[in-house]
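Reply to dn_fold:

You asked what the input looked like. This is it:
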Amino acid sequence: QVQLVESGGGLVQPGGSLRLSCAASGNRITYYTMGWYRQAPGRERELVASITSGLKTNYANSVKGRFTISRDNAKNTVYLQMNSLEPEDTALYYCTAQALGRSHWGQGTQVTVSS
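and this is what came back:
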């Protein structure tokens, strides 16, 4: 079992940056595919970015070139660097850990992009 705790969300102006962190406990994330999802009010949850144990990354088209996912297995932590933020990025951001057909989710951290 993996427990995930997100942090780093907040209020930022358009064009600004935030770095989200996802700290895992209960198990090492070394062999997990880690990801970030988001859900805005009235919209379905969507995949933002993922990174495999082999460091292969995948991004939603809407965030390519602006967001970067990374992982530090030694710290059991995954990051999402978000640059050039837009109001459309406003959402609750969730961290996930997937392996052997099971998914684990954090509670989420709110990101609000507004002037």
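Residues 94 and 108 are 4 Å apart (CA to CA).
Hope that clears it up.
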